[in-house]
Amino acid sequence: MYHHYTFTTEQLSETEWAMPLLAQTLADWGFESFQEEPDKGLLNAYISDDAWHESKEISTQLATDAGVLTLYNIAWHYHHKLASSSDWLAAWRSTTFEPISLRGRMLVTTPELVPTPQTHELQLLIEAYNAFGSGEHHTTRMILEHLLDYDVKGAQVIDMGCGTGILGIAALLLGAGSLVAIDTSSECVTNTRHNLQLNGFAPSEHISVLHGDAAQLSAYPGEADLLFANIHRNIILEDLPRYVAAVRSGGEVWLSGFLLSDRTVIYQALEAVKLEVVDEATSEEWIFVRTRKG
Fold first, then answer.
1. 37 domain residue, yes or no
2. Residue 254 is part of which domain span?
3. Rounded distance, CA 78 to CA 224, Å?
4. Is Transcription regulation among the key words of this record (predicted)?
């Protein structure tokens, strides 16, 4: 069971910068999936029932089923209701999601929307158990686009906070030799395994999907050629030393999931663990950083 919150504002001229900050704040409070419609001043946000009960911020800031949350002088009117995951995902798939073309080479789509005949060299099928990780979000898209320009053939890949599994699956489609996908959510682990099967892969000695946090990385010291962490800033800052330990010398750590305003604190953390920044990209308020271990 999920809790569905809608946030709306009449200050439409401010949504371009204010909506990402609202989503980031809600992510801090335990929300895991978002659907943004900036032109309408509308943000749909979803949080699991367990996380909803555990969040102290929700009990104080969103204590009623309807009210106003003010952030950075923007008034967000919210409404709360219960929704089963199947209900809101069905609505998302049928009314919100559109296939995503990446550089004209890879198409991210759902089984229901697969084109016939195939229109792209690579086709990545996703059935999302939560909408984040469908390829629509700026951070996911930036990583996928950079991955298309990166030689991942034969690489050992680790996907931290795998979500739907989209990044790891993309790496496998591009020729990665192995994948370890890790998430703290058992639902995401199930979702990743399902999506692997949709794309012709299955757990094996070369493909593992694990339930847990960065402590799982201790089993892979210095093994990865490439590690993704498209996760919240605070988790990256806490787990960065473990990411570095899991990557071989010369291997890369790709980070996203945080805002451009977090750039300074992230770069300070990268310097502390001696990761070299080799590239970065931004999309609206979000940033992607590609780093290399010396």
1. yes
2. 138-293
3. 43
4. no
Which residue, among 44, 129, 54, has the nearest Cα to 84 in the 3D structure?
A: 129
Our count of domains for the chain comes to: 2
H runs (alpha helix) in the chain: 15-28, 49-54, 56-61, 85-95, 138-148, 166-173, 186-198, 233-246, 263-272
The answer as to whether 105 is a domain residue is: no
Give the CATH number of the domain where residue 207 resides: 3.40.50.150
Let me know if residue 179 belongs to a domain. yes
| Overall pTM > 0.85 | no
User: Taking Cα atoms as reference points, which of 60, 45, 50 lies closest to residue 4?
Assistant: 45
> Distance (Å, rounded) from C-alpha 179 to C-alpha 26?
30
Q: CATH number of the domain that 18 lies in?
A: 3.30.70.330
157/265 same-domain check: yes
Q: For residue range 194-206, what is the model confidence (pLDDT) as tens digits?
A: 999 999 998 899 9
Per-residue model confidence as pLDDT tens digits over 243-272:
999 999 999 999 998 888 899 999 999 999
**Distant-in-sequence, close-in-space partners of 190: CB < 8 Å, separation ≥ 6:** 129
- pLDDT for the residue numbered 92: 52
Peptide linkage before 117 cis (omega within 30 of 0): yes
Q: Record the tokens describing residue 119, joined without a space.
A: 């229109």
